[in-house]
Known about the structure:
This is Zf-TFIIB domain-containing protein. Residues 45-86 are annotated as: Disordered. Residues 2-42 form the Transcription factor zinc-finger domain. It holds the Pfam family Zn_ribbon_TFIIB. The chain has 86 residues and is of the alpha+beta class. It has helices spanning 35-47, 50-60, 65-70, and strands at residues 11-15, 18-22, 29-30. The mean pLDDT is 78. A three-stranded antiparallel sheet has the order 1-2-3. Helices cover 35% and strands 14% of the residues.
Amino acid sequence: xxxxxxxxxxxxxxxxxxxxxxxxxxxxxxxxxxxxxxxxxxxxxxxxxxxxxxxxxxxxxxxxxxxxxxxxxxxxxxxxxxxxxx
Length: 86
């Protein structure tokens, strides 16, 4: 399949049981029917558990005011960053 944006051949990756097509050239991400819903369901399941929330807080750190001053250009990460780590 070709990228609708730049006509480059899309690559496929599987993340947590969801197939994601991505463009290595423009870094566009393309989902087939139902894949966004799967990602949203898994995200909701993940964050509905207190232990998952606490584990993510330890893994990704506190993104409060103090950490923003230390690293103003650092992008926030979350559970969804595992899907989109291209």
